[in-house]
Amino acid sequence: MSPVKLVVFDLDHTLWDHPNISSLVFPLKLVTRDSVEDAEHSRVTLFIGIRETLEALRDRGLVLSVASWNDPAPVLELLRLLGLRGLFKHIQVEWDVPKVDMIRKIVSLVGRDLRMDVRPEEILFVDDNEKHHEVVREKEKGIRLAKAWVNPKSSTELLDPEWLG
Q: Where are the domains of the chain?
């Protein structure tokens, strides 16, 4: 099995506990290192260990990217406030675009920007929604799929060779 080069993350219910950050009301403010609150006191908190997992993946030389169904403004602001923006090479945020198409666009951008060829079997897609997994499985065979946080049970398990090859 080829080692993973690119890890693509969903956001809502994958990096953090909130189901839809597009519903947040600006302004957003950092309340702890891992939590942000909106103007109506709705809180978004990173899942335990996710920051450390992202940093470890980056430190291993993997390219990290985002594919999310959201509005771009809250995504970019939340990532900025949490100090995570710099960890992600490409951020694809659109409504109702199949995640497989977002992943394909990310692969194209990685090829252009980093001059790196990435084959499907070198991609790990992490999302909590089985529907997105089904579409990716059907349309782009070979991409590794991780259902956050069912299989693997936690973000730190993503660092295991079983997931990264």
A: 6-164
Q: How many CB atoms lie within 10 A of CB 107?
A: 25
For the whole model, what pTM was predicted? 0.97
Question: Is it true that domain 6-164 has CATH number 3.40.50.1000?
Answer: yes
Give me the residues paired with residue 127 across strands.
147
Residue whose tokens read 């090859």: 165
Longest dimension (CA), the chain: 47
Contacts (Cβ under 8 Å, ≥6 apart) of 37: 28, 29, 31, 43, 44
Task: Check whether the bond before 152 is cis (ω within 30° of 0).
Answer: yes
Spatial separation of the C-alpha atoms in residues 86 and 28, rounded to whole Å: 19
The letter for the amino acid at 97 is V
Q: Where are the alpha helices (DSSP H) in 17-88?
A: 50-59, 72-81
Q: What is the mean pLDDT of each run of 10 residues along the chain (165 residues)?
A: 95 98 98 98 98 98 98 98 98 96 98 96 98 97 96 95 94
Please, is 49 exposed, middle or buried when counting C-beta atoms within 10 Å of its C-beta (0-12, 13-18, 19+)?
middle
Contacts with 11 (C-beta within 8 Å, 6 or more apart), sequence order: 21, 66, 68, 70, 75
* Measured distance CA(121)–CA(123) in Å, rounded: 6
| Residue 131 amino acid letter | K
